[in-house]
Amino acid sequence: MQTQGVSVHIEKLNKHFGSKHVLKDVDLEVRAGETFSIIGPSGTGKSILLRHIIGLETPDSGRVLIGDKPLEAAPRSYRSSMVFQSSALFNSLTVGENIGLWLREHRICPEARILEIIAEKLAIVGLEGIEELNTAELSGGMKKRVAIARSLAMEPELVLYDEPTAELDPVTTDELAETIISLRGRTGNTTIIVTHDLNFALYLSDRIAMMHQGRIVAVGTPPEIRASENPFVKGFIRTTTKGINSQ
Question: Which whole-number Å values give the CA distances from 127 to 29, 77, 104, 120, in the listed order?
Fold first, then answer.
């Protein structure tokens, strides 16, 4: 099913945890249907920003708009899902039970259709026929793709990924990137990815935002980010490529 992505607008977002100012006047626009990555080193506020977009955190000031509606007024007008860093699969359930859990809990459709949806979503991520496997039998990369299949079962307009390449080897990271790219044309949803993996972001993103110390310091296409003269972007590229020319 082709879904319609939603735009995300973030306006002057601020968040404190105690005396620590984690998000500082963050302004950001993600276009409907876009694959957008937020990059930066650990501790810059990337994941906290993602949690605000999905409504798991409440800002001290500023706001998040989904389409043209404030986040708190928008929940019934769109569906969102999040693929967590740990995949967050239930070990007591099979692969198929994990993917079908939301559909069954909300009684979205008859059981026969749920089974069809589970098979369809597994096929989309290249894991046909593993419905009966236990999650303990899966590799790290397979768990990530099952988590994506579970998120797609909701037919979401907005999908968020928190550090999807964490603990994956380079080959599995490439496979995951190809999976996300293949979804772009098949689903039409808006995708926001938080990652410290520069090459991953450069490869699959339409646009990228760089965060530094709680602020957005640069936004651009992958070629624009590579060519950026912003000192924080240049420093991040230099550090993550270990001095290798990124052009």
Answer: 33, 31, 21, 10
